Amino acid sequence: MPGLPKFPFSPKALLVIPAILLVLIGIWSSFYTIQAEEQGVVMRFGKYSDTVDRGLHFKIPFGVDTVQAVAVRRQQKLEFGFGTAGAKNRSQVSNRDEWQFEREMVTGDLNAALVEWVVQYRVDDPKDYLFNVRDPDETLRDVAESAMREAVGDRTVDEVLTIGRQDIEAESLQKLKDLTTKYGMGLTIDQVQLKDVNPPRPVQSSFNEVNEAQQQKEEAINVANGLYNRAVPKARGEAQRQISDAEGYATQRINEAEGDAARFTALYDEFAKSPDITKRRLYLETMGEVVPQLGRKIIIDEEAKQILPLLNLDDSKLPIK
């Protein structure tokens, strides 16, 4: 066509351009990045080759090496009998139609209970997680449901609804850990938690009334125990005080008696040393106490012939004996 420039055509150009594109694509696909919460499982020709940590890494391009990132530092959970919107893990929530079947369980005394629970877990070994079990998350759901039904089936409905919740959680957790280890699933089970446990809806109102009555009973018992704990220590303290007072009084009386006895013994010892002197002293002391109480008296020797020289004749009121 006149007016258009002519470029030299070379058959080699048809080979060079694809080769350059191929090299660029190979270089671009030779590098990959593992995020902070992940580990990468490298497979060469479809067979496990290596596990790499976070960061930038190199791999053989063109499908020779493939890498699958597994979140190992993220805690994941499975919900049974209910579901939370916006779940990132596709196995976290089952189909809504299955929720009712998941929560319905039979207890050991052949009663029914509605149980909702959660399993929290993490990937511990990416290699085992990817290669030992097909679809490990769904397998974990089945294993967790089996462990929970076994734990609930070993208890009465009263235990399931009231005091047995912690035991059920602990038993289910241990069973689940044992099974995941046995199957080599590469998972670590962190927690099994019961969210909501109720009796079947037709009897739920009756159960609530029974539960309310039990709570009132417990409240009355707690009030009575409180009164008991206040009254009994007070009575014991009062009794102890009276005992202490009695012991103090007894000690005082004993000490006084012992003092009197010691004083009497000391006097007796002195009397034993000089009995005549002691008798005279006691006689004189006694007479000193008795004579003043006799009034005005004249005491003469029995050999005296008369008393006139001794009388005060001016005192007409002087008694004469």
From TrEMBL:
<keyword id="KW-0645">Protease</keyword>
<keyword id="KW-1133">Transmembrane helix</keyword>
<keyword id="KW-0175">Coiled coil</keyword>
<feature type="domain" description="Band 7">
    <location>
        <begin position="29"/>
        <end position="211"/>
    </location>
</feature>
<dbReference type="InterPro" id="IPR010201">
    <property type="entry name" value="HflK"/>
</dbReference>
<keyword id="KW-0812">Transmembrane</keyword>
<dbReference type="GO" id="GO:0008233">
    <property type="term" value="F:peptidase activity"/>
</dbReference>
<protein>
    <recommendedName>
        <fullName>Protein HflK</fullName>
    </recommendedName>
</protein>
<comment type="function">
    <text>HflC and HflK could encode or regulate a protease.</text>
</comment>
<dbReference type="InterPro" id="IPR036013">
    <property type="entry name" value="Band_7/SPFH_dom_sf"/>
</dbReference>
<dbReference type="InterPro" id="IPR050710">
    <property type="entry name" value="Band7/mec-2_domain"/>
</dbReference>
<dbReference type="GO" id="GO:0006508">
    <property type="term" value="P:proteolysis"/>
</dbReference>
<dbReference type="Pfam" id="PF01145">
    <property type="entry name" value="Band_7"/>
</dbReference>
<dbReference type="InterPro" id="IPR001107">
    <property type="entry name" value="Band_7"/>
</dbReference>
<feature type="coiled-coil region">
    <location>
        <begin position="203"/>
        <end position="230"/>
    </location>
</feature>
<comment type="subunit">
    <text>HflC and HflK may interact to form a multimeric complex.</text>
</comment>
<keyword id="KW-0378">Hydrolase</keyword>
<keyword id="KW-0472">Membrane</keyword>
<comment type="similarity">
    <text>Belongs to the band 7/mec-2 family. HflK subfamily.</text>
</comment>
